[in-house]
Write a structure and sequence with these properties.
globular; single chain; seven-stranded mixed beta sheet; alpha/beta
């Protein structure tokens, strides 16, 4: 056979078979979605809920996004700790070095996410978190120099989250304090960058509602004087709002909706039927992280040279209607416009879910 004919056949063969997302004209399915969450350690229950939520979404899609086969790789980023820096780095590097990797779901909390996002961003791999609410991950934030650019070595946003950011939670606490008649409040901080930032946001939001806020200590050690109305103490580390007045009560706000409050009313039952346990608050956010990624894969095409870029653009700026979290969009910076913040009343060891309104912005 002439050499030219043999070369032509070889090129046809390579084009038909593909050789991975990074090196062929056509992607080589199945593509992989890496899921890096705390499967062990103190955050293990929440991490497993988020992972199983992602698993359920992929099962509901029959492991396909359009015509593309999708597989998930579940990795532990905790190794028995709250999170493990070595594991987080290893998980992110494993994902970016896999030519079949389409996306990365993780981490559950902001601190490990700050470690993995620069790695995935540098490789152009889109990352979606079901729980990291750090304001600095998507916007400039006091105490976090050069944010969010420090997490974007590529120069473009590639991180998104399905959970509202921490400043939305602080705004919701201020709104609730106002609704309960508070005219004075204290806000605590342990001196960490996160709590200082959350305290500042609460103070600013409370002032807009006519509440005077002072820096305070834990509620048992602070008296908030008020000539009229109730007084309140907000503890950002716990999301706890203690209200004092005619009817003292202990309350809590959370970015994660209680499963009974989800717009997707069937999710909790589907999760329980599949995994034989009740869904925790993070399960729906893991489910929606995978759903968001699958939607982007469906619209990314099959050209390997542009697949990851198309997928990233499909997540950043996405519009999602009728999901388990309701209808929302992902902004150009990676934030969700979903703003429902869960309210709880605390009685002893019991947290009673109440309403979940959006705070005024």
């Amino acid at each position: 056979m002439p050499r030219s004919a043999l070369a032509a056949l070889l090129l046809i063969g390579l084009g038909a078979a593909g050789c991975g997302i990074a090196g062929s004209a056509t992607i080589d399915a199945p593509v992989a979605v890496y899921v890096s969450l705390p499967l062990t350690g103190p955050r293990g229950p929440d991490g497993r809920d988020a992972a199983d939520g992602a698993r359920l979404a992929l099962e509901h899609a029959r492991s396909k996004a359009g015509a593309i086969q999708v597989r998930a790789r579940f990795l532990d980023d905790a190794k028995g700790k709250a999170w493990d820096p070595v594991a987080v780095g290893a998980n992110a590097r494993q994902a970016v070095q896999d030519s079949s990797a389409a996306a990365y779901i993780g981490e559950l909390d902001s601190e490990p996410t700050r470690a993995s996002v620069p790695i995935t961003n540098d490789a152009g791999l889109v990352q979606v978190s079901p729980g990291a609410g750090g304001v600095d991950l998507t916007a400039p934030a006091a105490g976090y120099p050069d944010s969010p650019d420090r997490y974007r070595p590529s120069g473009s946003a590639s991180f998104a989250r399905t959970v509202p950011a921490d400043d939305v939670v602080a705004d919701a606490a201020a709104l609730w304090a106002s609704e309960l008649g508070a005219t004075a409040a204290a806000v605590t901080s342990d001196g960490s960058t996160f709590q200082d930032l959350a305290a500042a946001e609460f103070k600013s939001a409370a002032a807009e509602h006519g509440i005077q806020v002072s820096q305070g200590k834990p509620p048992s050690k602070v008296a908030v004087a008020s000539d009229a109305g109730a007084s309140a103490v907000y503890e950002p580390g716990l999301g706890r709002l203690s209200v004092y007045g005619n009817a003292p009560q202990t309350l809590q706000v959370s970015a994660e909706l209680d499963p009974t409050s989800l717009p997707g009313k069937h999710f909790a039952g589907q999760f329980g039927q599949r995994f034989h346990r009740s869904a925790g608050p993070y399960a729906a956010y893991g489910y929606e992280a995978m759903e968001l990624v699958l939607q982007a894969i469906r619209g990314a095409g099959t050209d390997a040279s542009s697949f990851r870029d198309n997928l990233r653009h499909g997540v950043i700026g996405a519009h999602r209607d009728g999901t388990v979290l309701g209808s929302y969009a992902i902004t150009s910076e990676g934030d969700t416009t979903e703003c429902l913040i869960q309210r709880y009343r605390i009685a002893g060891a019991t947290a009673q879910p109440l309403a979940a309104p959006c705070p005024a912005r």
